[in-house]
Amino acid sequence: MSAETDPDAALMLRVKQGDSRAFAELVDKYKQPVMNVVYRMIHDATEAEDLAQNVFVQVYRSAHRYQVSSKFSTWLFTIVRNLCLNEIRRRSRHPADSMDAPHPEQEEQPWQQFEDKKVFAPPDQLLHGELQEKIEQALAELPENQRVAILLCRQDELSYEEIAKVLGCSLSATKSLIHRGRELLKQKLKPYLRTGAWRAAK
Fold first, then answer.
1. Rounded Cα distance, 126 and 15, in Å
2. In terms of Cα–Cα distance, which of 151, 159, 157 is closest to 182?
3. Burial letters for 133-160: b for 16+ Cβ neighbours within 10 Å, e otherwise?
4. Would you kindly state where each structural domain of the chain is located, as residue ranges?
5. Taking a C-beta distance cutoff of 8 angstroms, is the pair 72, 26 a contact?
6. By C-alpha distance, which of 128, 127, 106 is closest to 116?
7. Peptide bond just before 104 cis, omega within 30 deg
8. What is the pTM of this model?
């Protein structure tokens, strides 16, 4: 992998040199995918927004150590995974606490949008809303490692090999997690599959 073959890695190398415009480009491209994954992992709209912004704060702070050893998106979603798992573990230890206030470096941005950008015409819109709710419930009930694998699989930027790097496991183990996760989702969503509105991840 090189900056020549990954435009986002090239942008991150510019961030490493202090280019704030390059950082803004990366934030603009990835803020929605990051927000979607974070929200579906922690299921709290307000804290998901804070945590998504913390992801980009960490990206910026880590810029001086950045090396092009894999795709930028792989590196980014590794940060997302780690921060989300840390937050989930922190909540299990201190369930009454809320996340720390956003860091002063964070910019206030209207990131609170969790649905994929798709347009549904009436009367499909109502059905989609109910179905989406069932999908979110089913995802939340998956074992943590399967849920993370499925969420990453839904990101077009990531291949199975890259998901394996994010998860820190082998390619075969990653494929197994995704397969088992899909099968569990199908079982949970079986009553809704007849509508044709839900499709398994890639």
1. 43
2. 151
3. eebeebbeebeebbbbbbbbbbbebbee
4. 1-95, 122-202
5. yes
6. 128
7. no
8. 0.69
Q: What is the pLDDT of residue 45?
A: 79
> Average pLDDT per run of 10 along the chain, which is 202 residues long?
78 94 94 90 83 93 90 92 86 58 40 42 49 76 86 81 90 92 84 55 40
Fold of 1-95: Rna Polymerase Sigma Factor; Chain: A (1.10.1740)
Cα distances (Å, whole numbers) of residue 94 to 39, 41, 91, 126, 197? 19, 17, 5, 37, 38
CATH number of the structural domain 122-202: 1.10.10.10
**How is residue 78 written in tokens?**
């590794």
pLDDT at 107: 40
